[in-house]
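Suppose you are handed a protein chain with no further information: no name, no annotation, nothing but its sequence. What can you learn? This example shows the usual starting point.
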Amino acid sequence: MAIMNSRKPHVLAVPFAAQGHVKPLMKLSRQIAKHGIKVTFVNIESVHEQIVSAAKKSDEQDEDEDEEDNIAMTSIPDGISSEDDKSDTFKLLESLRSTMPGFLTDLIERINSSNGDEKISCVIADVTIGWILETAEKMGAEPVVFMPSSAAALAMALHIPKLLEEGSLDENGTITRGETISLSDNIPVWTKNELCWSVSNDLKIQKIFFDCTSRFQKAAHQTKLFLCNTSQELESSACNLFPNLLPIGPLLDPKAPKSSSISCNFHPEDESCISWLSNKPSKSVIYVSFDELALGLELSGRAFLWVVRSDLANGSPVVYPNGFLERVSEFGKIVQWAPQEKVLSHGSVGCFMSHCGWNSTLEGLSNGVPFLCWPYFVDQYHNRNYVCDKWGIGLRIYSDENGIRTRYEIKKKIDMVFCDDELKGNALKMKEICEKSVGEGGSSYRNFETFVDRLRK
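A reasonable first move is to predict its three-dimensional structure. Written in structure tokens, the prediction is:
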């Protein structure tokens, strides 16, 4: 008679230390936990402390539920001394590369020795720190890469060696042949300023970003499986470039967990905006997640909910144009941090002014909200091209000859998006596509079930 394997699957999830990376991996972890599989979620200490602090300030009350019983949150040191600036992303990355493998080895050994029936069987690592998967293999765990951004962004990163070899890119990641790079007819092209590592006015910083992105290749060699927060329907051409990619998105979490810390918010959410939205007409509010923007919102005369983080002003009070807050008090609301998925799913929201980070893009898509696009960093430009050119659910906000997005351009595009029935119709179609992909029997639903079955073997 065969002896049954009594060991239970146990996943170690390791995100990169940024809100846009931590949050989607926690959403994935919650989905895994709902299937009765234990997940240990590992942040570096500074991020863990920030999440715990935000949870303490939240109005939510901690309650037990099965899903959270299967998630344990822990932390490891970041390797940076107390005198160093922990907000320096590049210094943090270098520290993590040298210290994280050792800290993770110690953590896995402690977990494995404490319960032999629940040893770490799989490590899911953010692609940005995919080099830790060598540690996973050494510890006998299956290495899996998680891509929190688009499949197109992953495709571009993994094509870097070929692009260098054929002379399309130089050693700094600058395009050297023509003005654009195309990987497929059905994927929007990248211009020289739209590559996810491009920094137009600082070649040194661009080189650091480029080298970091180039290391995704090492993660590709360490794993047999990529999990990507996208769907086959959203990015079929990009997804088809990878035989070992499982699109499992959009990863959404409209129902907040009972435990605030499991939300993995870096800042406490201001729930008062939800009741404020409930007093506004259907599809009438502009949701803004970032002197001319303020004045453009005022000039539009439309209701708006604007997220303005104090930490982006280095802890100083945010300065608005003179008299702005008084003039917009009847139709505008400003908060430091909003429950974004709740906001975007609210019936009064009719437009999302966004930098087009991938998480925000998926959340807007999945709720059928048209976009006003204002990208400024890494993959946001290419996400904007998806939104405006491929899916037809958003409008660009253009700069003038001085590089300024004026209040008049902002007002003009706000008026256009609220009057564009084709845009609204496309947004609703994309919502249906997203719902179908993650719904029972959908492509992402099936892919996730395949992954869960793999974990249990």
